[in-house]
Amino acid sequence: MGRCPTRKVKKRRLSHKTARRDKFEVKGDDLVYTELRKPETETKPLELSEDLPGMGQFYCLHCDRYFCNVSVRDDHFKTKKHKKRVKLMNGPAPHSQLDADLAAGMGMPDNGPKLMAA
């Protein structure tokens, strides 16, 4: 038995989801962490923006995401992804660019407490 000569192998299509995820620029973990540590008096009210979903009014600070309405945002608050993110942001500070530079040997040398204080 042979194969039908008219049948071709289906081409694998690229996922459009990866391009969609990168549509809105996401802040790094260290920036979100510092923003969460700011006092309530320093936080600004959300501005109206036509470019963002829901005119930029429905925002999750932990995940740095905008939503189209309140119900979608509230559903997001119940997800496993959001809960993990909240736990991550309530823990110790994530690595920053300064930590990465020090690990790569590009930052100030750590010569001990005596030499750093002088």
TrEMBL record:
Q: Which residues form the C2H2-type domain?
A: 60-82
| The protein's name | C2H2-type domain-containing protein
PROSITE patterns referenced in this protein's UniProt entry, alphabetically:
ZINC_FINGER_C2H2_1
Q: Which InterPro entries match?
A: Matrin/U1-like-C_Znf_C2H2, Znf_C2H2_jaz, Znf_C2H2_sf, Znf_C2H2_type
Task: Name the SUPFAM superfamilies on file.
Answer: beta-beta-alpha zinc fingers
Keywords from the UniProt entry:
Metal-binding, Zinc, Zinc-finger
Gene Ontology MF terms: nucleic acid binding; zinc ion binding
Gene3D superfamilies on file:
Classic Zinc Finger (3.30.160.60)
Q: What residue spans carry the Basic residues bias annotation?
A: 1-20
Which Pfam families does the entry link to? zf-C2H2_jaz (PF12171)
Q: Where is this region: Disordered?
A: 1-21, 83-104
**Looking at the record's lineage, which domain of life comes first?**
Eukaryota
